[in-house]
Design goal:
By secondary structure, the chain is an all-beta fold. The protein is built from no helices and 5 strands. 0% of the residues lie in helices and 29% in strands. A 3-stranded antiparallel beta sheet has the order 3-4-5, with no helix packed on it. Strands 1-2 form a two-stranded antiparallel sheet. The structure holds zinc ion. The site of zinc ion (ZN) has 8 residues, from loops.
């Protein structure tokens, strides 16, 4: 386990070159305040592993 994790921080962000925007990839659950996970299949959605809250991503 001696691998460098240089890109760890950038994994939390998504850079949209078309819009020139940087947005946080990880959202915080509005119910319990924990970091939610982004699932892309079958549909893009945020899922909280703690309280099972789900928020569908709209484009
Ligand atoms: Zn939650």
């Amino acid at each position: 386990m001696s691998e460098k994790s240089k890109s760890f921080r950038s994994n939390l962000y998504e850079i949209d070159l078309k819009k020139g925007a940087i947005r946080l990839k990880n959202r915080v659950c509005p119910k319990c305040g924990r970091v939610m996970a982004l699932h892309e299949k079958p549909i893009p959605r945020w899922h909280c592993g703690y309280c099972s809250y789900v928020e569908v991503v709209r484009s």
